[in-house]
């Protein structure tokens, strides 16, 4: 059997019509069965001058409606990308949108720009429209200076590679409506061959001028009402839509090793071509579509019986929909029954046909369905196209949300995308949780950063424990692994723990915008909400502090609970600007005796890396014949501890300082000088834990 390593989707971002720009908004739209078609916006062109709704007429647009992005399409954060106005003015809005969307996808993947720069990260962008070129070439006397690099299709990908200093292959893909999914297929091949370590897959589509809509109307591609009536009897063409989508991909083994979030797994990708078809180049081939499905599963040794959701191309055309439905039914026929059908969906009924972006839009929808375990309903669906024998083929077109069938051992789904010239692509995706649980990971869908944090440390009940030391416990029987002898929560874990939160932005006002966003997000949570507990709070702080690009403007505050996030504006410091070009030398100063106090360093036990360091020091001290327990002596109860006695204080201080050095190294902080005073020279010269012997004997 062929083993194909799954590809992990570690990040994604999108801008879809009707304000569907966040997962929650997009999912809400899907579950509410909303179609977001509107009349062509006046800031694009005057649709009244080009539309003709009284039948087919060459040189006109069939419908007055389409699916458009919210807001002004010209908006672009040029200062963030350090671009001059005269260059931006000549840039296709698709370049602008892809740059912003790619950055958001990197953030969603917890990847920093400084980490990505210079890496073998490839970029594959699918697109097949060029309205901005048409606009700028209308008058050859007004073509801008930077038109060549502002409108070339290749620059859609190259601009991303240049801006983020990505050194892998960079390509623009045009196979018509299947462009972005073909781009994904090429990206996966690059990962499998080792040509890239990370890939960016993007898709873009913007409607600016009437010419291409007229061209599509002339061919009879567009529907009379500007909507996609996918698989419905009234389907007579598709409704155009615009949008952006970006995925960040990585081999699953590397994603797990690097602690990346994992949204879903791409199990297999396949492509083919219809070849010659009767009726013309735009006529689809049922035979080649069905063959592609089977071959895509076979080459990765995947079983079709697990698939119960199929995100179809489903444009709403009279010929295309029945052809695709029959191909799906034939490919899965022996695995289906009336009681256990395969569910068919088409996101085009919600947001329109995004053309070059449509394939990735289908993938985004499927990822969200896999994560939530719910199959979304179809929109604009009333009566099944009579050319589709759904009863015989055991196909179901849901009109309300359906819980994922329990008969499916694996949550698996398929996605189709076809180009009007016959370029076909098929993708198989699995939910992340099942695969990762099989590998021994406890999370569902995402690798939690707190899990990654603790993954750097060995078990606190490790095998290195000396035979005469049978416990890894703290004061009064409180276990360091989270429970005491009575089985209740550890006294340390239950205490409020301060967390340093750092926010940064490329401009002074950006910090305030982040505060507003975070406060709004937490306003709906309560302190005891199970979905967001202290572990998730740690994940968030860890992500904001270490998995976000640090910009010039920075603010900080200390948070202890979810409630603190609701009032960040009251506790956050004023933004301070520090240039990233400035190099600051960092030094570590180690104190001697006299600075210790009851409870010194006890809160460090909250950090797994420090906890492991202190327990290791405790084991080593015990192996030297030490008759007391380090963790007990660090407890803040000053009556019970002997922190003032040199016999204890020197070893305690050295152990705490070693734990702090371990923490500094774990966080990747670079220091150029160390200074020690008195017994602090022991920790300053720390090379191995054996230095504790010096501190113990010296005391």
UniProtKB/TrEMBL annotation:
Chaperone found in the keyword field: no
Protein name stated in the entry: Ketosynthase family 3 (KS3) domain-containing protein
SUPFAM superfamilies linked: FabD/lysophospholipase-like, Thiolase-like
All copies of domain Ketosynthase family 3 (KS3), residue ranges: 4-431
Keywords (A to Z) from UniProt: Oxidoreductase, Phosphopantetheine, Phosphoprotein, Transferase
Matches recorded under InterPro entries: Ac_transferase_dom_sf (IPR001227), Acyl_transferase_dom (IPR014043), Acyl_Trfase/lysoPLipase (IPR016035), Ketoacyl_synth_AS (IPR018201), Ketoacyl_synth_C (IPR014031), Ketoacyl_synth_N (IPR014030), PKS_assoc (IPR032821), PKS_Beta-ketoAc_synthase_dom (IPR020841)
Biological processes, Gene Ontology terms: fatty acid biosynthetic process; secondary metabolite biosynthetic process
Transmembrane segments: none
GO molecular function terms noted in the UniProt entry: 3-oxoacyl-[acyl-carrier-protein] synthase activity; fatty acid synthase activity; oxidoreductase activity
PROSITE patterns from the UniProt entry: KS3_1, KS3_2
UniProt cross-references to Pfam families, sorted A to Z: Acyl_transf_1, KAsynt_C_assoc, ketoacyl-synt, Ketoacyl-synt_C
PANTHER family in UniProt: ASPERFURANONE POLYKETIDE SYNTHASE AFOG-RELATED, FATTY ACID SYNTHASE
CDD domains, alphabetized: PKS
Keyword Phosphoprotein included in the entry's annotation: yes
């Amino acid at each position: 059997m062929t083993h194909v390593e799954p590809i992990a989707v570690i990040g994604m971002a999108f801008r879809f019509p009707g304000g569907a720009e966040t997962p929650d908004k997009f999912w809400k739209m899907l579950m509410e069965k909303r179609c977001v078609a509107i009349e062509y916006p006046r800031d694009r062109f005057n649709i009244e001058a080009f539309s003709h709704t009284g039948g087919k007429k060459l040189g006109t647009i069939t419908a007055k409606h389409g699916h458009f992005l919210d807001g002004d399409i010209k908006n672009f954060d040029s200062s963030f990308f350090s671009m001059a106005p005269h260059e931006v003015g000549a840039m296709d809005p698709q370049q602008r949108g892809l740059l912003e969307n790619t950055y958001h996808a990197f953030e969603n993947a917890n990847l920093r720009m400084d980490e990505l720069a210079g890496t073998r990260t490839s970029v594959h962008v699918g697109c097949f429209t060029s309205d901005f070129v048409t606009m700028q070439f209308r008058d050859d006397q007004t073509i801008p200076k930077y038109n060549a690099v502002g409108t070339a299709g290749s620059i859609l990908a190259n601009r991303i590679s240049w801006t983020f200093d990505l050194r892998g292959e960079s390509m623009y893909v045009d196979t018509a409506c299947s462009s972005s999914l073909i781009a994904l297929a090429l990206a996966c091949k690059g990962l499998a061959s080792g040509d890239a370590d990370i890939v960016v897959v993007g898709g873009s589509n913007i409607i600016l001028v009437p010419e291409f809509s007229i061209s599509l109307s002339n061919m009879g591609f567009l529907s009379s009402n500007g909507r996609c009536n996918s698989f419905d009897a009234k389907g007579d063409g598709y409704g155009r839509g615009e949008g952006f989508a970006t995925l960040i991909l990585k081999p699953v083994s590397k994603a797990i090793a690097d602690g990346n979030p994992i949204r879903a797994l791409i199990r297999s990708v396949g492509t083919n071509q219809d070849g010659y078809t009767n009726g013309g180049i735009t006529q689809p081939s049922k035979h080649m579509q069905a063959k592609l499905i089977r071959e895509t599963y076979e080459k990765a040794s995947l079983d079709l019986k697990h698939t119960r959701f199929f995100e179809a191309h489903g444009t709403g055309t009279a010929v295309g929909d029945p052809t695709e439905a029959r191909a799906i039914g034939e490919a899965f026929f022996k695995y289906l029954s009336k009681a256990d059908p395969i569910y068919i969906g088409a996101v085009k009924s919600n947001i329109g046909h995004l053309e070059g972006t449509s394939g990735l839009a289908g993938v985004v929808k499927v990822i969200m369905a896999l994560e939530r375990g719910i199959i979304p309903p179809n929109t604009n669906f009333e009566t099944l196209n009579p050319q589709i024998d759904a009863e015989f083929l055991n196909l179901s077109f849901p009109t309300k949300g359906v819980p994922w069938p329990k008969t499916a051992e694996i949550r698996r789904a398929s996605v189709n995308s076809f180009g009007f010239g016959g370029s076909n692509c098929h993708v198989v995706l699995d939910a992340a949780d099942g695969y990762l649980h099989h590998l021994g990971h406890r999370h569902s869908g995402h690798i939690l950063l707190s899990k990654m944090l603790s993954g750097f440390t060995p078990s606190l009940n490790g095998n290195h424990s000396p035979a005469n030391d049978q416990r890894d416990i703290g004061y009064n029987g409180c276990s360091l692994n989270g429970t005491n002898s009575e089985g209740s929560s550890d006294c340390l874990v239950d205490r409020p723990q301060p967390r340093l939160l750092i926010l940064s932005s490329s401009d002074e006002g950006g910090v305030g915008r982040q505060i507003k966003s975070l406060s709004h997000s937490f306003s709906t949570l309560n302190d005891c909400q199970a979905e967001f507990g202290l572990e998730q709070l740690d994940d968030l702080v860890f992500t904001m502090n270490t998995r976000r690009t640090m910009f010039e403007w920075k603010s900080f505050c200390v948070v202890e609970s979810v409630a603190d996030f609701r009032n960040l504006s009251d506790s956050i410091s004023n933004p301070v600007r520090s240039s990233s070009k400035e190099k600051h030398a960092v030094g570590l100063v180690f104190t001697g005796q006299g600075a210790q106090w009851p409870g010194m360093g006890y809160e460090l036990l909250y950090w797994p890396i420090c906890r492991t360091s202190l327990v290791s020091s405790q084991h080593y001290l015990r192996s030297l014949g030490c008759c007391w327990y380090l963790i007990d002596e660090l407890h803040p109860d000053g009556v019970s501890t002997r922190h003032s006695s040199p016999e204890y204080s020197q070893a305690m201080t050295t152990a705490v300082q070693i734990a702090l050095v371990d923490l500094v190294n774990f966080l990747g902080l670079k220091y150029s000088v160390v200074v020690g005073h008195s017994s602090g020279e022991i920790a300053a010269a720390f090379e191995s834990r054996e230095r504790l012997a010096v501190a113990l004997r010296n005391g």
